[in-house]
Amino acid sequence: MRRSGPAQRRLASAAVASPPLLGAQACIDDLNNKLAGLIANAELLSQMVDGDAAERVDRLIHCAWQAARVVEKLDRITTQTLR
């Protein structure tokens, strides 16, 4: 998920003061994008399989959503720190 507008300007202005946090923010954005791809593909896969395989895919989707919530928390922490 790419940032734009006021949030992007805040991050850019913080670049001089906090390069490590900006690096962390870039990793958070990258991880968010990868998790979105994982969830989307797993949801498609869940429609293609049944039985035990479907249950495993559902568990994968659940875990990916849990990971996305952790990334969201990290995003809030870094965004608050950069303000």
What is the number of helices?
A: 3
SS-derived structural category: mainly alpha
Tell me the count of domains: 1
Overall pLDDT confidence = 85
Estimated radius of gyration? 16 Å
CA distance, first residue to last residue: 19 Å
Largest sheet: none
- The residue fraction in helices comes out at over 70%
Topology as a string of helices (H) and strands (E): HHH
The percent range for strand residues is under 5%
Describe the structure.
- With 83 residues, this protein is mainly alpha-helical.
- It has one domain.
- The protein is 81% helix and 0% strand.
- Helix 2 runs antiparallel to helix 3.
- It is elongated and about 50 Å long.
- The two termini are 19 Å apart.
Quick summary of this structure?
This protein is mainly α and 83 residues long. The protein contains 3 helices and no strands.
Topology:
Elements: H1 6-13, H2 19-46, H3 52-82
Helix pairs in contact: 2-3
Features:
83 residues, mainly alpha
